[in-house]
Design a protein that fits this description.
Number of strands: 12
Number of helices: 0
Helix content: under 10%
Strand content: 35-45%
CATH architecture: 6 Propeller
CATH class: Mainly Beta
Structural class: mainly beta
Length: about 190
């Protein structure tokens, strides 16, 4: 989509991209960042697109790897990357405020949980709360955790009221705004 809000007529190839997992996208400091996991080591790498539509060269997220799609999100003027790690399917995150310099990524921090698939992350702007949802490892239920900038909540089952509720893949979270009237009229 261009700056006027018009979709291009065809798909554009991201040169050099090859991933077996879904990529992750985030807009940070007016650039579109594309994250992917590649190769037999499942190394994490990324590139950014500037306002002119030009892609940067590839950069690596130091020591990061995942065998699922990476999940980037912007929270409190910081770019977060949440992943399911290779060993034991544990959940981790790393952050940066200057992603154009690969050496500025934080160390990986454990989220004290695990998942059978990629995490889903979103920030609710009205409350400034970061939300993470994952598919559980031992029980295929959707688990949820939040961060308010200071404190992490405990993991909780999103479908705790329904013992038969299960998921077979990554949960999806999005923010949707409706600008119409009650009956849909604008």
């Amino acid at each position: 989509m261009d700056t006027a809000g018009t979709w291009s007529a065809s798909w554009t190839t991201i040169v050099g991209s090859f991933t077996s997992y879904r990529p992750g996208l985030a807009v940070f400091n007016s650039k579109l960042y594309y994250f992917e996991s590649v190769g037999t080591t499942h190394a994490l790498r990324y590139k950014s697109m500037n306002d002119a539509g030009m892609w940067s060269s590839w950069s690596s997220v130091p020591t990061g790897s995942t065998n699922a799609g990476p999940s980037p999100v912007v929270y409190n003027d910081t770019l977060w990357l949440v992943v399911k790690g290779l060993a034991g399917s544990k959940l981790w995150y790393a952050t940066t405020t200057t992603p154009d310099t690969a050496a500025t990524w934080s160390s990986w921090t454990s989220l004290a949980g695990s998942s059978a698939s990629a995490p889903s992350v979103v920030v609710v702007p009205e409350t400034n709360v970061l939300h993470i949802a994952v598919r559980g490892n031992s029980l295929p239920k959707t688990w949820h955790r939040t961060y308010n900038g200071t404190t992490w909540s405990a993991w909780e089952a999103m479908d705790a009221q329904d013992p038969d509720a299960q998921t077979t893949d990554t949960p999806v979270m999005n923010i949707f705004y409706w600008f119409g009237g009650q009956d849909g009229a604008q």
